[in-house]
Amino acid sequence: MDGRLTDIFSGFGVNINFVPTVKRPVMDQISSSSPPVTQHQHQQTSEDSTSKFVAHLQGWTGPALFPLSDLKGSELDVFLPGLWVTLHVICINTFVLHTLQSQGSGRQVHLTEFTRTLASQLTVDSSVTVPVLPRLNSSSYQETSLPNVSKQRLVTVSYGEYRDMKLQGWNTPGVCGLDNSGNSCYLNAVLQCLCSTVPLVEHLLNQDTRKELAKSKCRVAEVFVRLLEEMWLGRNSSCAPVEARSVLCSILPQFNNNSQQDAQELLLFLLNALHDNLKKVAKRQMRSSIRQPRQNQNRNCATAAGDSTIVSHLFEGQLSYMILCMHCNHQAHSTQTFTVLSLPIPTDIIKCSIQDCLSLFFEQTLLTGGEQMLCSVCGLKRETAVLTCLDKPPEILLLHLKRFGCKGKNQVKLRTNVVFSMKLDLTPFLSTSVQNTSYSSYRLYAVVNHAGHLNMGHYTALCHNVLTRTWHCFDDSAVREVQDSFVQSPNAYLLLYSRRPFQKPKIHGL
């Protein structure tokens, strides 16, 4: 353990010294004034001290709480493993902090003495996460000088500073857990992803937008805005989206139960509801603009014209279809607006890439038999080739992996490990009209995972925070920071990519 921790921290230029309280070989301890030591005493002292220290570092036995003679062998096998795993996890973490703190003043902390003090402190107060150890900071504790301290870059972290940093992490804007109100993990995961969609958050938390929503009595948008405000400007580590769920269930009764629901389906319904509410605001603005002076009328009408909202601006893209009659080669073209791309997963393989799924989605399709299409030139149904491409890439690209399907007559969940990257290039799938633009490069900023089976499972979310530039895992109310390597998972179900890098949102009070 000491070698492992030393290697890890040495990469940051931090010097950590583990000083065992093991007596050196007796020949090194004997001075001219010391009484003679017999060979038997020498061997016994060396073996006892070494065996105790080795056992202590192994984390299964040791002198910190009680001597080994107090328990029988059978009790040791059952009791000590669970106790010492728990205790040593706390001990090692706390030991590292106090070692770093001690280095600033050229001191060393002995591991065995540290464990004894830690155990005593936990006996007094077991509720503290990182116990304060006054004995190690007092002058009564014997310390030795740390040689060559000035040659290393040292980090000093006090318990108070560590506590403040931890609390500050809990209160990071946009990093807030959501309580599970009864199998609502699918809702919580979707809400976390939308909470991490910075342009949407910035627009909805704008003071003018909030006033217009209140005037137009938009229930879904108002409730969602209040939840975003609590998640971005609140001071709690988690909150309960009870009001949001209640309003959603009132307009979407299919979600008004405690059964597992589909996160992708909910996401589509929620975006549609927000879009409808914001269109209501736009129409109200258009009506009011008619009564305003002429110089402001054009600007307001342009803002409210059509059905465009922040939802459609961010999430809507357009697919282009080229339809070719295989009999007369007549070509026809059509387009379709989309919000989510539902990608098929290659069958009968264990692992594939997100590019494989995209290629399968955009591959040329031949319609034969009962799927033949009517050719306007031939006047008959003919075999038809359909070529699909991306004509207008959206600002926010939502990719849905079709993990729930049929195998024969049975519904199954596809557990193929779809490997995806932080950056996604859509160039091979763009139409010729947009291939030479900068629309093709995307960055991953959120993932919804589904673990479990078809009818019984659990949703979690992984989201990138624009302020800390780090990823967080949201498991309902439990939140933890994770490394980039943790984002890749065989449980990925929804992937959210952004065409532009997010900036710190301009939110009043942030």
Using only C-alpha atoms, the radius of gyration works out to 32 Å
Q: What is the helix fraction of residues, given as a range? A: 25-40%
- What is the mean predicted local confidence, pLDDT? 75
Compute the separation of the termini in Å. Answer: 42 Å
Number of helices: 16
Residue windows where pLDDT falls under 50 for at least 5 positions: 20-39, 52-80, 123-169, 294-305
| Biggest beta-sheet profile | 8 strands, mixed
Question: Explain this structure to me?
Answer:
The chain contains 16 helices and 20 strands. The protein starts with a helix and ends in a 12-residue tail after the last strand. Strands 5, 11, 15, 16, 17, 18, 19 and 20 form an eight-stranded mixed beta sheet that branches. It has a four-stranded antiparallel beta sheet with strand order 4-3-10-7, with no helix packed on it. Mean pLDDT is 75; it is low at 20-39, 52-80, 123-169 and 294-305. With 510 residues, it is α+β, with helices and mostly antiparallel strands. It is globular and about 90 Å long. The protein has two domains: 2-170, no CATH class; 182-498, Cysteine proteinases (Cathepsin B, Chain A), CATH 3.90.70.10.
Give structural attributes.
16 helices, 2 domains, 8-stranded mixed β-sheet, alpha+beta, 510 residues, 4-stranded antiparallel β-sheet, Cathepsin B, Chain A
Quick synopsis:
The chain is α+β, with helices and mostly antiparallel strands and 510 residues long. Helix content is 39%, strand content 20%.
